[in-house]
Write a structure and sequence with these properties.
The chain is mainly alpha-helical. The mean pLDDT is about 95.
Length: about 120
């Protein structure tokens, strides 16, 4: 994996350790709820991660987009499926999502270790 992925994961792990180390009950519950949300249920984890990605794009949260891109990659989302998710996000979120789409594609390429042609 490329530098973008490694840097993001290292920073995320470091800061999550500090945050969870505060032993704040509310923050721990929010993190737990987040974990539970993406578990298998009536919807598959794969579908839930694609939903998380689309909503993160619309909310324009680059950290969330990177997180959900990795989870989508782990769930076996194809590049074709990724572009359909990105298209939904751009229709719902509008053209302000275009810069986030660029960064998402760049991150996806690093996850896949190959450029999208």
């Amino acid at each position: 994996m490329g530098n973008l992925v490694e840097e993001f994961n290292a920073y995320r792990a470091k800061m999550n350790e500090k945050i969870l180390g505060s032993d704040n009950k509310v923050i721990k519950r929010i993190y737990g709820l987040d974990t539970l949300t993406y578990m298998e249920g009536a919807l598959s984890s794969k579908i839930k991660e694609m939903l998380g990605l689309a909503t993160s794009m619309v909310l324009r949260c680059d950290d969330c987009v990177k997180y959900h891109l990795e989870k989508c990659y782990e769930q076996g989302v194809t590049t074709e499926e990724l572009f359909e998710v990105l298209s939904v996000a751009n229709v719902v979120g509008g053209t302000i999502c275009i810069p986030h789409t660029r960064r998402a594609v760049e991150y996806w390429e690093e996850l896949n270790n190959s450029p999208i042609s």
